[in-house]
User: Which sequence fits this backbone?
């Protein structure tokens, strides 16, 4: 039976998979999404510079034989996606064997986010010139960082949604839930997870990974207490019997970095062919940079 311990990071077991572009605050390699297929692990992740120096400037798609050492297949830039910033990608293999890359894109000059998708026969073949908006958001809501699970012939999605009415409040986030029969046209089903007033996740809750365990749903999520903790979210656990209604567990974060800021976020769980799992996540280092770490379970 799957337990929380199977999903939560254990830093003693982890190793660095991707170093940040520079060893300095604001330089990140992270926001991972991985798929095990054909004896390999395919990984999509975001590269970021500080605000004012490019922000999320590229998404890399790479592959690995051992899950730790990666060969770059394609790099997609913010210019190619006509976006002010790229954030967490989502890599998916469809039941038909094709590949999709869902990209979170910031609309120029606004706090708005949207999600676009690229599709290819092979992860090396993603072409940003051929793309489609699948989660447009609206004038009052930015949408990004989708987590996608296929189960029972249905596509399930949890996305981070941000209010745009007040620009000073746009960092607030909840996780809304949607379903689809094809992964392109989505129907929103409501808010699945929100932060709790007065708690460590009061400012917002962003689902990062979901597993169905029998009749239960187990999710990992990123939370922060205030706007000052933006970019340094820590990881919590939420559960429920309905994917549209999850409840945070415990009174504090379940996983975090020991370094200043404490950021440990965007945990991604990959099911391996042998029944094991591999975790990927973004981790704040002592020098303030963020690296992409992995561990085998």
Assistant:
């Amino acid at each position: 039976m799957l337990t929380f311990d199977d999903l939560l990071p254990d830093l003693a077991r982890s190793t660095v998979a991707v170093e940040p572009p520079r060893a300095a605050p604001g330089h990140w390699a992270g926001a991972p999404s991985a798929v095990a297929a054909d004896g390999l692990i395919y990984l999509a992740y975001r590269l970021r510079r500080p605000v004012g120096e490019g922000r999320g400037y590229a998404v890399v798609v790479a592959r690995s034989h051992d899950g730790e050492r990666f060969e770059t297949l394609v790099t997609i830039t913010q210019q190619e996606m006509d976006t002010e910033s790229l954030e967490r990608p989502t890599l998916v293999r469809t039941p038909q064997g094709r590949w999709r890359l869902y990209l979170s894109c910031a609309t120029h000059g606004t706090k708005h986010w949207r999600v676009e998708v690229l599709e290819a026969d092979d992860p090396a073949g993603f072409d940003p010139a051929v793309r489609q908006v699948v989660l447009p958001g609206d004038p009052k809501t930015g949408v990004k960082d989708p987590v996608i699970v296929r189960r029972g012939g249905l596509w399930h999605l949890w996305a981070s949604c941000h209010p745009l009415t007040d620009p000073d409040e746009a960092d607030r986030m909840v996780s809304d839930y949607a379903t689809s029969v094809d992964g392109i046209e989505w129907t929103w089903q409501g808010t699945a997870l929100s932060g709790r007033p007065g708690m460590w996740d009061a400012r917002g809750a962003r689902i990062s990974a979901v597993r169905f365990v029998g009749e239960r749903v187990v999710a990992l999520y990123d939370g922060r207490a205030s706007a000052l903790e933006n970019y340094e979210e820590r990881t919590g656990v939420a559960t429920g019997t309905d994917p549209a209604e999850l409840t945070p567990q415990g009174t504090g974060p379940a996983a975090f970095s020991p370094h200043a800021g404490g950021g440990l976020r965007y945990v991604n769980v990959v099911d391996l062919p042998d029944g094991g799992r591999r975790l990927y996540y973004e981790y704040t280092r002592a020098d303030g940079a963020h690296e992409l770490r992995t561990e085998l379970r």
In short: The longest helix spans residues 4-7. The first strand starts at residue 15 and ends at 18. The helical segments are 4-7. Residues 25 and 283 are 12 Å apart (CA to CA).
